[in-house]
Amino acid sequence: MIPVIDLHCDTLSKLSASPAAFRLPPEAADSHVFLSGLLSSGALLQCFAVFTDLYELGKETPLSHVQKQISCFRSFLTESPDALAPVLTYSDILTNRKQGRISALLSLEESCLSEDSLSLLPMLYSMGVRMTTLTWNYPNLLGHPASCLTPPPEKASSCPPFLSGIKARHDGLTPLGFDFIEEAERLGILIDVSHLSDTGFYHVAAHSKKPFLASHSNARSICDVPRNLSDDMLRVLAEHGGIAGLNLCEHFLVQSPSSPEELLDALVLHAKHIVSVAGIDTIALGTDFDGIPTNAAIPDVTHLPKLERALRAAGFSSGELDKLFYRNALRVLEECL
């Protein structure tokens, strides 16, 4: 069984109110990612994203929302210490593997948590965060997203004060966003360009001094949506030693609803295209489990071997599959952590 590194799941937001559900057996699990599934599917490392919709917080502050999900993450770790262990440095991954434990890496999906997000980075780093996007789907003080949504009027009352007056426009990073990248890289936090606008992607490429990644983005030439990467973006990512994680979201795979067989074929098509444009060293896996509707072909983590079999049948060699499923991600983590 090939070891698996998954660069993105939203299981923390899914289970933040009931972290004990992470240990439920497969037949009772209410999430795409759960402990027994990780154990049975050959997981080497699972990245757990702390997701924040800044317009859905109600009376919560962004930081308290993040802290609640980090508490969920810590519950996963403390309740299963023999099976799951945190990643703070690259050597932790090697140690965990020798000890037979799955590595768990904490990431952020939306990093503008206050008007002074830059000063929060050292605290977030101390809490275990090692990867971060700059935006989700709304513009913030750091930059502008690929899919620039306008919050509906009913969400206006939930808008944090520091976001008031920010307009949805297709733009790149702000001056604060550039400073944010520098500080994150100084600390040892990977920059994730998934959800970032095209202009923002090129800003990161021009400004970053380390490899960066698109943790859960597919090929735009195969499925033309803003969240996927253009061929030029894939080539630039490769030039910087970065990786793109295959996303299982149906809307990023095909233009119209499809059967399980067609979805699996689409995943193979995206993988082959990324490799043909950017090379085998640029592709990885970023399922987006628990942040997307269930993928009918790969409904949860236990079904990931289907993707391996489909890719092998499509002509991927064992060495190429090793790179896709874990070696490329390991290389980037070694360079950046």
Keywords:
single chain; 337 residues; 3-stranded parallel β-sheet; 9 strands
Concise summary:
The protein is α/β, with parallel strands linked by helices. It has helices at 11-15, 35-40, 62-79, 90-98, 117-126, 175-187, 198-207, 231-239, 260-278, 304-313, 318-336; strands spanning 4-9, 43-51, 84-86, 102-109, 129-133, 190-192, 213-214, 243-246, 283-285. Strands 1, 2, 3, 4, 5 and 6 form a six-stranded parallel β-sheet that branches. Strands 7-8-9 form a three-stranded parallel β-sheet.
Structure description:
With 337 residues, the chain is α/β, with parallel strands linked by helices. 38% of the residues lie in helices and 13% in strands. The two termini are 26 Å apart. The model has no long low-confidence stretch (mean pLDDT 95).
Secondary-structure map:
Layout: E1 4-9, H1 11-15, H2 35-40, E2 43-51, H3 62-79, E3 84-86, H4 90-98, E4 102-109, H5 117-126, E5 129-133, H6 175-187, E6 190-192, H7 198-207, E7 213-214, H8 231-239, E8 243-246, H9 260-278, E9 283-285, H10 304-313, H11 318-336
Parallel strand pairs: 1-2, 2-4, 3-4, 4-5, 5-6, 7-8, 8-9
